[in-house]
Design a protein that fits this description.
With 116 residues, the chain is mostly beta strands. The chain is built from no helices and 11 strands.
Amino acid sequence: VQLVESGGGLVQPGGPLRLSCTGSGFTFSTYEMSWYRQTPGKERELVAVITSVGGRTNYADSVKGRFTISRHNAKNTVYLQMNSLKPEDTAVYYCRGRRGTGNDYWGQGTQVTVSS
């Protein structure tokens, strides 16, 4: 089982960035997928989640209206479109796939830095 994030980097405040996470070794379409982020000294926090059935989404208050999570099951990929980025969005972003109990996988993380 593997989750591989990509798309991180340095972006100016107000700019956009799209993260991707591609899964392998499990039935991607049956998993709830989510994005988390973490900064040094802080706990990992949930950013956005998308269900396996129906594609319902939910967001942290801090990113509502700016970030959009989506999934393409045929490509085993979940995306996080981030717009109007702020310096406080700087973090390592992690992808997570979860189904029931005992099926819980994380990616290695990708750094996003918002700075001028």
